[in-house]
Write a structure and sequence with these properties.
The chain has about 110 residues and is of the alpha+beta class. The chain is built from one helix and four strands, in the order βαβββ. Strands 1, 2, 3 and 4 form a four-stranded antiparallel beta sheet that branches. The N and C termini lie far apart (about 40 Å). InterPro entries: Reg_factor_effector_dom_sf (IPR011256), SOUL_heme-bd (IPR006917).
């Protein structure tokens, strides 16, 4: 797989814990501060598949084309958030896809 086709896993922690995070024991795990950004999000339930992500991403991009205030930021790639353990029933799962957006110039 090319680098852009590989999945990355992230755990998001509130900034107030930044100084107190334990150091990773695995050298492939990194702690990285990510700058603030504005994203447009679509929430959904069920299991997440690649096809579902692509379909929902296209739908979100299409919806944002008609938005008066925001547009998808150039080069933005879709981010997938899954909030439940694997054994959670599909209809109770909480998932989101997000695209970074920027305010349209007036």
């Amino acid at each position: 797989l090319e680098d852009q086709d590989k999945w990355q896993m992230s755990f998001v922690m509130p900034s107030k814990y930044g100084a107190n995070l334990p150091l990773p024991k695995d050298p492939s795990v990194r702690i990285k501060e990510v700058p603030k950004k504005v994203v447009a999000v679509v929430a959904f339930s069920g299991f997440v598949t690649d096809e579902d992500v692509k379909r929902r991403e296209l739908k979100l991009r299409d919806a944002l084309k008609g938005d008066r205030q925001f547009r998808v930021k150039e080069g933005a790639s879709v981010e997938v958030a899954q909030y439940n353990p694997p054994f959670t029933l599909p209809f109770t799962r909480r998932n989101e896809i997000a695209l970074e957006v920027e305010r349209k110039e007036e």
